[in-house]
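new request in #modeling-help
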Amino acid sequence: MSKDALRAEARAFLRALPPAERAAAEARIARRVWEVPEIAGARTLLVYASLPEEVGTDGIAAEARRRGITLVYPRCLPEGRMTLHAVDAPDALRPGRFGIREPDADASPLREPGEIDAALIPGLAWDRAGHRLGRGAGYYDRLLAHPEWRGFRCGLFFAAQETPSIPHEAWDVRLDAIVTEQEIARTTPVRDSEDLAGLLQKTWSSDRPHNERMIWSAAIIATALHRAGMRATLVGGGAIEFHAPGVYTTTDLDFVIEGRPRAEIDPVMRSLGMQRQGRHWVMGDLYVEVPGNVMEEPVDTETIGPFELRVIRKEYVVADRIVGFRHWKSWAHGAQAITLIRTLGRELDDKVLRAALRKEGAEHAYGLLRRLAASDEEVTPQRLDALWHKHYR
Amino acid sequence: MINIDDYDLSELRARWARRRAGVEQVKARTDVRGMTRPARDPDEAAFLKATGQEGPFVEVDLPGWREWIAYRNTPPGERTGPPRNAAYFAARDRARGLL
């Protein structure tokens, strides 16, 4: 069947779909879409503003906002091109070209195709090989073929829009999955944790430098959590090893994990070959701990090979060490703070660091440790003890 | 299977090398005796020692510290009691004679 004939058939089906049946199917799709790990784990999700005959996305968008996912909507330009814009509020969309609700180009920040983690894509028909039939203008074909595109491509369709085979060209980009009211039809395999478990084991037992083993292991664990819909941020000593290796050698990885209930962490850790021991998950001498489920401090997202790793910003790592010295009289924290201040130097954003310390009543201690860091004096427990008692006894 | 040897970390390594040089300067004038503990696992400890990577291990398990970290990383709506900061947790445990 030709593409035109398929389009005509699909349009006839969509027009004839009874409203109640459509609403029930859309509700099931809106629930099922969160079962796709790549969608649930996305930080930036491209969503289309649905036309009346397409699978509705307003409910999905509302849930995405609730989960803290950044939503991006397309805006159609002439010649089949689209720009992508981050949109905060549902009422920020206005009817644009073809009557499709679009973001205001002036009010909504532009996003690049390479920033999209996953996309929900509409269409008139789909097949099991992942081909989709669009409206014929080629907007999505161009976007998905963009050289910087690396996001997960998920079509939203009604089950009855499936067709045995959609005519396609060799260069057409296929969808990775299609979600309907009946199923999630994947065309690329689920990247389960099995390969990550082997990789973690191999990485941790390798003879690479200690901090590289730590950072790769952190990235692998964060990726496994990400695939299960969780967002992990490396904090604590592991973050120090990332920002300034050598200040502190640890085999503990602390993650703040957001997005899913704590009970869902254990199966992921076990799938990686880690065993629960008290508050830790353990593999050999690698200990993982989860001190919380909300990350208010800013983070850096770093690329570690094929993975991404979120790490708390260095100013907050330094602030914690200063707080440990100031309030807990921990000379080890003081020595680490001095080393970090001296090492990171001008790379530290002084305003950010001071604001974090002010909140914890430790800004003054920063001045003391900074002066010691700038000097050539020896840093000993006795020196730190004397410094603390001079100012805070 | 992904092979981590296939990936180029040269940019990160350059950043780490630059910072590590700064770390070594300060460590040369730092006495960390009394601030360290060995790796938990003997094999890991032996490996680090043999490869010159045995660094200062520090047990950050001070009374109140973990509680402060957990408080900070709990959604504001789920926190109980008045707003608390590091000074509060440290002072409370000092008053209890734990610090």
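bot summary: Residues 69 and 86 of chain B are 9 Å apart (CA to CA).
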